[in-house]
Write a structure and sequence with these properties.
- The structure is a single chain.
- This protein has one domain: Four Helix Bundle (Hemerythrin (Met), subunit A), CATH 1.20.120.
- Helices cover 80% and strands 0% of the residues.
- The chain contains four helices and no strands.
- The radius of gyration is 15 Å and the shape is elongated.
């Protein structure tokens, strides 16, 4: 496993941990529905990123394609969930258009995952 794959796995694990923390904060009254949404996106996408790296590493999908998909999902999570969380907790955006850019990156990540599954893996 490459260093990049390990980094992506570690970041996915941090996304999962952040999702649990955001869910707990939302359940205890800190934040709004936006914080719940940020938590859900983190918790839904973290295992998908782990699976993508596993599939690519096992040679079941196009490795470069799955890495690209995982990186797009990570970037999308950082922008989308980060913006929602900051707005919910501090009433400040990450930066203008961060959430829509992040959402677009998430959609692109899923499309890249679909392409990586369709492109034959090199053996």
């Amino acid at each position: 496993m490459s260093g990049l794959d390990r980094l992506i796995l570690a970041l996915a694990a941090l996304a999962g941990a952040s999702g649990v923390a955001a869910s707990a904060a939302a359940a205890h009254g800190a934040g709004t529905d936006s914080l719940k949404t940020a938590a859900q996106f983190l918790l839904f996408h973290a295992p998908a990123i782990l699976a993508l790296i596993g599939l690519g590493g096992a040679g079941l999908t196009h490795r470069l394609g799955t890495r690209l998909a995982a990186l797009l999902l990570l970037a999308g999570l950082a922008l989308f969930s980060g913006d929602l969380a900051l707005r919910a907790l501090y009433a400040r955006p990450l930066f203008p258009m961060a959430a829509p850019i992040g959402g677009t990156a998430l959609m692109a990540g899923w499309l890249a995952a679909a392409l990586a599954a369709l492109i034959p893996a090199r053996r």
